[in-house]
Amino acid sequence: MPNETPRRTFAIISHPDAGKTTLTEKVLLLGGGIRSAGTVKGKKSGKYATSDWMEIEKQRGISVTSSVMQLLYKDIQINILDTPGHQDFSEDTYRTLTAVDTAVMVIDSVKGIEAQTLKLFKVCRMRGIPILTFINKLDREGKEPLDLLSEIEETLEMDTFPMNWPIGTGKRLKGIYSIPDDTVEFYNESHEREILPYKEVTKLEDYEQEALEEEIMLLEEAGNDFTMEKVLNGTLTPVFFGSALSNFGVQSFLDQFVKLAAEPQARKASGELVPPTSPDFSGFIFKIQANMNPNHRDRIAFLRVCSGSFERGMEVTLSRSGKKMKLNQSHSFFASDRETVEKAYPGDIVGLYDSGNFQVGDTIVGGNTRIQYEEMPQFPPEKFAKVTAKNALKHKQYHKGIEQLVQEGTIQLYKTPYFEDYIIGAVGELQFQVFEYRMKNEYKVDIEFNHMTHELARWVTKGKVTEDMTDSRKMLVNDQQGRSVLLFQNEFALRWFQDKHPDMELSTGWEIL
Ligand code: G4P
User: Fold this and answer.
1) What is the ipTM of this complex?
2) Where is the Tr-type G domain positioned along the sequence (predicted)?
3) Ligand 1 atom closest to Cα of 248?
C-alpha cells in the first residue's frame, strides 16, 4: 500500500476463549482482505496454518509466532498483530504490544476480566497504548452491562465510555443502540445486518424502550465525558458490546475503530520523540523467530517501521553496533505465505532475514540518523526451571547456546548465588519448549529441565538479602544484571515473607524492568 494510505496497527488483548479468533476472522472478512494470515486457527474445522516453521508447531498444530494480518477498510490499511495465548503465551506475546499503536481488549461478557487480559493490559498501560474494548458474547446470559463497565473501571482503573448499549442480553437480546449514530442494530439468527434510525424503530416492546432510554439517560448523567485525548492517552476506553460469533456489532465496531484507533505514533528514541513523518527511515526489532523454515535454518527479525520509508535493498545501520548492512530480504509475513516487501511505511511490520545480526529491541536506521529506540522491557516470569546439560562434556556449546538465546530474548536467565546454578524463567511454558528445541537443533546440546514450583518473582528494591532467604518456599537468585530476585512458590509464601521482613521492599518487576 502506498504511503498515502493511512495505517492503523493494533493487537487484540484477551484471555483464551474470549473470542479473539472469531472477532479477527469477522473483521478480516469485512475488509477488502489484502491478505490474511494462516494463524487464524480453524479449530473444529481442522484448518490449521499450513506452516513449516517449527517442528513444535507441526506437532501441536498451532502457530508459535505472532504473525501479522492486513486488511483494507474504508481506505485505511489495518495491520493486526496476532498475540498468541493458551500454551503459546510467551514473552513474544508481550513484546508484540510494543509494536502496536492501539490495543483492542476483548472481554467475554459472561466471565468479565480474566487473568491473561489483565497481564496484557498492564503492558498497554505501561506503554500508554490506547485501548478499545469489545465486550463479546452478548448472545449469552452474561453479566449486566453496567456491572461490566464498573468492573473495567475498578479493576483496570480506567474510565469507560460505552459507544453502544445492549437492548436485552442472552435469550432476550434484541439489538444494540449505537450512541454516536442514534441507530439500532437488530440481532437476528440469520446474521443479516439490519440497522434503523432510532426514531423509526417500531419493533421494541414498551418495557425495552423504557429500559433503554433510562439507561442511556443514566449514562449521560453519571457517565464519563468522552474526549479523544483521553482515548489516545489510554485513560478512557470506548466500549462496544456485540457478538463476534453472530457477526453482530462487528461492522459497527470496525466503523468506529477506524475513527478512534491511534495513527502511527511518534516514539521515543535517544530521549526525543521521533514522529512518523520524520524523513529518515527508522524502526525497531520487536521479535526474532528462528527456524521458520527448517530447510534454510533461517531466522526472521520482525521490524516495526517507525519513521521514513523502508525500501528493499536499502543500506541501514544497526544503532547498537554501528554496523552497516543492506536489507535485501524483506518479507511481509503471513504464516507460510512469504511475500517480498518492496516498500513499507510507518505502522507496517516487515520480516527481515537475519543471519544473526539482530537482537530483540534493536534499532535500525537509514541515512545518517543515529538514534536508539527505548529498550524493550523485560517481563516478569512466572515459570521457572533449573537447567543442566545432559552431557557435561558439551559445556562449551551449552554456555554459548544459553548466552545467545538469552540475548535473543528467548528465555530469561537467573543464577543462584555461590553455586551459580542456571535457572531459566519464562512467562509461558512454550518458551521452555522453544529453548529446548533450539539448544538441541542449533547447539547440539540435550538439556535437562528440573521444573520448579515457584511462580512469583520479586525484585528486592530495598533491604538486605541474606543467605538463609532460600528455603522450601522461596529461593534467592540473581538476574542478568546482578540484581537480587526472590522466587516465591505462591502468594501465601510472599505474604509470609513480607510479614516477617517489613523493612524490605519488593517489586513485581513491571516497574523496574
Ligand atoms: P480465542 O481466540 O479468544 O481463544 O476465542 P475463539 O474466537 O476461538 O472463541 C472461543 C469460543 O467462543 C469458540 O467456541 C467460539 O465459537 C465462541 N464464541 C466466540 N464469539 C462468540 C459469541 O459472540 N457468542 C458465543 N456464544 N460464542 C462465541 P468453541 O466451542 O470453543 O469453538 P468452535 O467450535 O465454535 O470453533
Assistant:
1) 0.97
2) 5-265
3) 23
Half-sphere exposure of 233 (CA within 13 A, CB side): 6
Architecture category of domain 383-507 in CATH: 2-Layer Sandwich (3.30)
Phi/psi region, residue 145 (left: phi>0; alpha: psi -120 to 50; beta: rest), is alpha
pLDDT along the chain (513 residues), means of 10: 86 94 88 48 36 42 56 92 79 92 98 95 93 98 97 97 96 95 91 90 92 94 95 97 95 97 95 94 89 61 94 93 87 60 91 85 90 88 95 91 88 92 92 89 92 95 90 93 95 95 90 63
Round to whole Å and give the CA distance between 143 and 419: 52
The average confidence (pLDDT) of the chain is 87
Beta carbon of 43 within 6 Å of any ligand 1 atom = yes
CA of 445 to the centre of ligand 1 (A): 40
Torsion-angle region of residue 56: left (phi > 0), alpha (psi -120 to 50) or beta? Answer: alpha
Amino acid at 386: K
Neighbours of 210 (CB within 10 A): 11
- Binding-site positions read 14-21, 82-86, 136-139
pTM for this entry: 0.89
Assess whether the C-beta atom of 109 lies below 6 angstroms from ligand 1.
Answer: no
Ligand 1 centroid, distance to 19 Cα (angstroms) = 5
CA of 223 to the centre of ligand 1 (A): 31
Residue owning grid cell 551459580? 420
C-alpha cell at 511: 516497574
**Binding-site residue ranges for GTP:** 14-21, 82-86, 136-139
Domain with CATH 3.40.50.300 in the chain: 7-260, 267-365
Alpha helices (runs of H) in 53-183, residue ranges in sequence order: 55-60, 91-96, 115-127, 145-156
The dotted CATH code for 7-260 is 3.40.50.300
Tell me the C-alpha distance between 7 and 262, whole Å.
Answer: 9
Give the distance (Å) from ligand 1 centre to CA of residue 157.
28
Q: Decide whether any atom of ligand 1 lies within 6 Å of the 18 Cβ.
A: yes
Q: How far is CA 506 from CA 248, 332, 378, 457, 485, in A?
A: 46, 42, 17, 9, 9
Strands (DSSP E) along 335-442, which ranges? Answer: 337-340, 343-344, 349-354, 363-365, 383-389, 412-415, 422-426
